[in-house]
Amino acid sequence: MKWIASLLVALLVLTSCSGRTERDGVERNALTSVTCDALMSSSKRRRAILTSNGLSNEGIRQEFVRLVKLRTDPGKARVVYVPDALVADGYTFSKALVDEFRRSLRGTGVVASNVASVELASSTKEEVQVALEGADVVYVECGNTFFLHYHMVQKDFKALLDPLLDQGVVYVGSSAGSIAAGKTASIATWKGWDDPTVVPKIPYEGLAVLGDKSFFPHYNPQWKSLVESKRPTLDHEVITLTDNQCYSSDESGERLRG
Asked: Which first-to-last residue range defines the signal peptide (predicted)?
């Protein structure tokens, strides 16, 4: 009968874990919190949307809203925008650039005043850490993957990001932001679109947002033979994304949409 008692205790703990337990949820007592975390952390998937062009169509936008709602009310969501890859492509990091990103979120329920930004290249690690505090969404922009990846490594971005993702923060990647999210950022060398000479060469270890997966954005039949020839050079899965697709992950699983 001891196993029945143990099962009942586990069920009671899991019941107390359910419901609103994130930043806008109810407080749990310390014992329950520790027990819940121990039981749930090993099976909890991260929340992420990897894309070629950001929130470029209604299906991707709806998926974005769905994931944000798993975290909090979109009207309360704090979004942190990382524009480095775009800046490397010739754009100026400015209020106008951030305002343009804010406009891209119209219709999602996200309030413009809740959107903050941090440029990794011009910030210290401590400033990046402060910028990420309280984030519900981290949106990493398109552009030069090598520049983005280099400054992620310089600011130890992975170490700052991982705890947030494990707590349910949503990662959104657009093109370079999706490549950098993979296990390896070397995918950026396959097409040769990005200039690697803008920064010193360093190992291509990525953020591994979703573990042993890497992402090839802007896929179309033109790149089929290239991808097929390059895939065997890696020890993990490479997921291709057309300009209309997204790869989405949450507690219920992972899926390719579009």
From this structure: 1-19
